[in-house]
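In this notation, each integer encodes one residue's backbone shape. One such record reads:

___
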Amino acid sequence: MDDAERWRDLDLLLARPGRLVGPGFEACPELRAFLQSEDCRVLCVGAGGLGCEILKDLALSGVVHIDVIDMDTIDVSNLNRQFLFRMKDVGQPKATVAAERINSRVPGVRVTPHFGRIEDQPPDWYRSFSIIILGLDSLEARRYMNSVVCGFLEYDDSGQPDLATVKPMVDGGTEGFKGHARVILPGHTPCFECTLWLFPPQTKFPLCTLAETPRSPAHCIEYAHLILWGQNLGP
């Protein structure tokens, strides 16, 4: 399959307005060239259920340079929905395995994994990406990423946001069969912190988080209740 056939549907999407675009939209047939250039780097934060889908969609949409960061390792409970992982991958870093799987399946894509906490990366590292896409289940992590991108924002002499400092961020979340996605443009749209009141109190936690990387008092209590209690005292 040559490039013209491979990207035919994507070119149609980028070169015509469609029905769901806002006022002032201008189709850009040159956008694919940018997506596949060295200047375009996309960061996927999280390689879990949502992150696997994001990585697959980015790779199949023509994005060439993708980075993924995740601090978790693969648990057996992940395998029913995180399709980039296999039984033999249990215990391995999610970011590393996800990157290897995408690189082996989609020719021309280069996914670079980062196994670690998002807080361990310096702000300038996040500044180097064209867009940041979140696939996180933790409100604390999403609030942190929101503070990072909003910290880049600067204003010009007239008090308007400097477009060169606006770092687009896509926030996504799932709950059972429901989900949402939104684009956050600091200085132009409400940020994650502005709409935090929309989220209900978190009462359930992913089992993989509890078993592998409990990182809050609530996680530790649930870990003792759901895992240790049954192991030590029986049902």
Notes: The chain has a mean pLDDT of 86. Residues 76 and 87 are 7 Å apart (CA to CA). The first strand starts at residue 41 and ends at 45.
